[in-house]
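Hi there. Long-time user, first ticket. I'm pasting a complex I've been working with (about 680 residues overall). I'd like to know whether the download I got is complete or cut off, because the file seemed smaller than I expected. Thanks.
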Amino acid sequence: MTTADTPVRIAVDAMGGDNAPGSVVAGAVEAVREGGVQIMLVGDPTIVQAELAKHDVEELPIAVIPSEGVIVEGEPPAMALRQKPRASILVSTGMIKQGHADASVTMGSTGGAMAAAAVVLGLSEGVDRPALGGPVIGVSPNTFVIDLGTNVDCRPSQLLSFAVIGDVFARRFWGIERPRIALLSVGEEAGKGNRQVRDTTELLEKSGLNFIGNLEGNDLAAGKAEVVVCDGFVGNIVMKLTEGLGKALSAHIGKSLKGKLSDSELDAATQDMHDLNNIVQTHGGGPIFGVNGISVVGHGAGDSTAVRRAIETARHTYDIDFIPKLNEEMAEVFARVQED
Amino acid sequence: MTTADTPVRIAVDAMGGDNAPGSVVAGAVEAVREGGVQIMLVGDPTIVQAELAKHDVEELPIAVIPSEGVIVEGEPPAMALRQKPRASILVSTGMIKQGHADASVTMGSTGGAMAAAAVVLGLSEGVDRPALGGPVIGVSPNTFVIDLGTNVDCRPSQLLSFAVIGDVFARRFWGIERPRIALLSVGEEAGKGNRQVRDTTELLEKSGLNFIGNLEGNDLAAGKAEVVVCDGFVGNIVMKLTEGLGKALSAHIGKSLKGKLSDSELDAATQDMHDLNNIVQTHGGGPIFGVNGISVVGHGAGDSTAVRRAIETARHTYDIDFIPKLNEEMAEVFARVQED
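Hi, the file is complete. Here it is re-exported in full:
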């Protein structure tokens, strides 16, 4: 926890993302000007200093920390980590481990950031691999879906850990006292679903969480639960399908309503179709879940505003004590399901 | 195969569906008037005769076949089949088995129809359970997705059998010479995906089918393949999610564009949002796949037009020799993958 006097120390990977380092440095400067944070920009010092020189930063709490190399989107993360031990994402994540930073932020490779977080920060008790989650469907902005793609073959205990993550997220980020937790399945009746769902149901019923049972695909668009748990294979397909529908429907609206709406109304309607389907692009990133520290991944294509928001998310995640609370609840829930 | 002289004999479950028997009988009469079929209406004779009396059917090839009871949506099919051995769906499916009908049609319980078809007609070689498939996403009307919910825990050989069904469907129904077959997964690169996808990839590569690799969720809305294979857990979530989005987006458009479009334009735009998402409601039913006979299930809420269309689908499925061609290709493909 922090107070107004002690700014949150955030290590920012200045080299990651499509618009790095320009937008990253600009976004970091914006965040510092808003107050409450001090920033360590991790990257090639010459390049980062040249970017910083474009801003008036003399009095601001911004330091430059040298790194060598960057892990780009699409590189196999494990190999990249070995080949580039001084890569910006490893150095920025390492600063948390060494006690020099409270959180880290990158707009770079999600796979790289997750691998770095798992290796450097370690996993929370009960977690096998880091997870990604968030509200992904625009028409259900208050439904947190987890996992979105990292964990494709899940044991029931992994799905239980996702439920705990979602519960703590909805409580701490959204202030909901007893978030409704559901399993994504193919029928609402208990006992419907695949083997994974049936086995996980047993665990969730003993978990002490506010487990409301199964939801079906159509319920995802109806906001029937704050947390919807699924394996990363299913979650990724849900996320990507809505992304694809958003594009297709937006294009369709653009054509079919052209001439019937004013230009500005048409722009608003097509944008709506994007945003009501997939909101990952709009909302942009969030913390990696299941690791022992705060590592926020923003959207690779994000501009300086997206960088500033990712930094704010990192600060907020720290302010609300997310990691300690998550570890606490994870231990409690796993103890509870193992009781009998 | 049939000629113009020998009408296709279709057993119609007169008791199944939300609007039975009224709409079912009316739709059957419409179908007979269109020509090319003779109809056996299976149901409670008194009730069915009373419905028939509302139409001028004296000269038409329509017979009434008695049955007792009906299996309704939501009843556990296996138990219902045992408890109601003379239920309309069992009698109508049985007429194929006994050589009195070439195909059967129901607007009733999908689960009941599938169970009846599996038990009475038997499964195609290589098939473990009947499957459902069809174009489910409105923006991709030429993408056949299979399975949609019956097979929730699939071995790779089951997914292979879905690929064969899709291939034969796209070739015989759509006239596409070499349909593109894809596996739904979480990354386009070979090797990406869960265990099931990786194991199925090996089989598909040896299958002789036009296997184009993995597609991701967003590709589903982009018409990148004629056939997309997934297990029924995933397929059902895809189908239902698009259904839910169709409803939500349609409602949203109705509100956000009210006053900006004329009433008729607004109606068209909201209808569009339904149809571009999930088209199962619109398109209504199709044959059950993987059984040794033609059993077509129409949409439970369908009107007489939907019944007539379902009867046409049954006739067409018979005319194109779908079942023999499917059995043939299934045997060939399974022999091919077992070669080495």
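A couple of notes from our side: Residues 131-282 of chain A form a domain with the Isopropylmalate Dehydrogenase fold (CATH 3.40.718.10). DSSP finds twelve helices and eleven strands in chain A.
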